[in-house]
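Deliverable D4.2, example record:
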Amino acid sequence: MLNVKKTGNIVQELPLVSIKIPSYNYGRYLGNCLDSILNQTYPNIEVLFRDNDSNDDSYEIALSYRKKFAEKGYYYEVSKNKRNIGSDNNTGRLSIFADGKYQYVLGCDDAISPNFIETCINLFLKYPKLSTVITHREEIDENDNKRLTPPFYNKNCIIEGKKQAAVYMMAGIAVPVQRMFDVKKLTSSVGSYYRNYFVAGDWAWNFLYSFVGDVAYIKKPLCQYRTHFGNETNESELNLLGIFEHFTLIHEFYNVGKAFNVQEVIERKDIAVEKLGSMCMRYATKMFYNNLHDIANKYLLLAPIYKPDIVSEEIYRELNDCLILKNDKLIERLGMIEKTYTVNRTASYDPPEGSLEI
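Output generated by the structure prediction step:
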């Protein structure tokens, strides 16, 4: 079936979008994920599902959706690894078989709004210089409770790629469920800088794609990102791997900035490293809330390595005092800390100067 749209008197073929679903042990959420694809308003989609040797019923659930996708008219392929090869490698295998010019990674525990794909593609077609489209997200926990955080930017906009690269020195901004790439734009000279990461790979790809095109940001939440202690992000917070990877990432970004002579990136290295000290405060707070005092203490010990003068900040001393508190007294103190200090982002930012509002 040929998918077309009309633009005035011109009929254009709609580009193929590849949705890649790397799966591991989230069968209880998978139906919601797959149903959200079936509800898309965009007609030209292929769906590639690959299970990473789950020990639940994820693979069987994926197989049960074959008829539904056939009725929708979407190409749907289901495969399974004989052993767990890691999330990054599993996604890489999906990429080998993806034919779409535009590609998107959807976590098997996440979901997208019905117009997510159509919104992204309309932007790509209207602004040919784009390499990435990002939308805001709604967070949901293991019990489907929703939490809406402020969008990163305070307006819908198109950001010049190199200026967005400088922003990525300070923040990853988007997890996979939030963004779509034009994979044809990534050149070998830029792509060769990618390294395998346990948890920071998404941030790395965001950065590299900003070197080959502009970035669109939509502040409306068009996707749902599930947060729970079972996902890799939270695991990396528990073992501190995430914060160490981010330190490595900043230096990798700095090297790319030097290679392509992007001063905005080069100049932000030191302040980006210092920000990791403040990130340690956020992670320590989270660990205290989960009664993980030993891990919170590790973050408090690590923070001054990234930001030496953080030991003189009141929030650092307040969190250190929490090490001897438990139960109601601990929760009361954490509540006071969060009221007094900004632990998590509470407001949206202006986009970089020169960005186009849309």
